[in-house]
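Following up on my earlier thread - several people asked me to post the actual chain instead of describing it. Fair enough. Here it is, all 313 residues.
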Amino acid sequence: MNAGYVRLSRDDDRRNYVSIENQKLIIRQFAADRGVVIHRWYEDDGVSGYLFDRPGFGRLMEDLDKDIDEVYVKDFSRLGRHNAKVLLLLDEYQERGKRLIVIDDNYDSQNSSDDTIGIKTWFNERYVKDTSKKIRRALAARQKEGTLITRPPFGYRKDPANNHLLEIVPEEAAYIRQIFALYLSGFGYRKIAVYLTDQHVPTPSMAQHARELATGRVTKRPVAEAWSESMVRELLENDFYTGTLRLRKRARTTVHGRDRRVPDSEQYVFEKHHPAIIEQSDFSLVQELKRKRSRSAYRGSPGPIEAGAPSPF
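Reply from S.P.:
Thanks for posting it. Predicted structure:
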């Protein structure tokens, strides 16, 4: 059985952009000229070639042991943009006795004497690394100037008249102040989360989804229906609510690597950047309480939360 593999991702060069359908057309025409029929297609749309943990590619490799005899791809960059892994992949095809044909690079695993393959695969990897480096550099430059690239956190929205300014969302700000007040009055993360859920307070993702619906820009981001301890903790730790913009809190050093936390001294901090929801003194007091409770394994005040908590609703 003959198979075709196609891939497309954001790290592809738009000047040489070849869509999924165009790749299939090229492969189909190449095969037809040789009297070959493509029986099955495998594709990964929107997946970086630097990664080899791709759904379509994974299914293809599994099926090599079943009924796949020949695989056709447009060029080496469609197989992947990781030099070492692509070269190992070529060896694996030969060891399995499977035929791999790379059209634009004139490669046939059954008859290959091209000494420039390593250069081609190295260049494909170099391209994605250079692109990643340029993106990180541009992002760092914008952050250093105090530009908020991501969407504002719960409680804020961008000013419709000026996209660089932020304004407070009054109803969300009331919930944030209540969360800080509940924590200062003795309640822990879990009880605050339960209380907010019971009071039908919208979670940050629910509030964002509602704004998207209002503007007609609905995304596929997951929406949490209930508050969690982590949501409460992250909100209480975020000094954005004091009017401080803190950028470059996390960064990565490799392509598609894991983000690492950047030390406070290396972050870009802009005080009095936007209107504050929480006073600095209250925020500092919450951080001190958090440290003390962490050392004492604090579990929250006893009794139901409704008994001692003023409700803003």
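Residues 209 and 218 are 7 Å apart (CA to CA). That should answer part of your original question.
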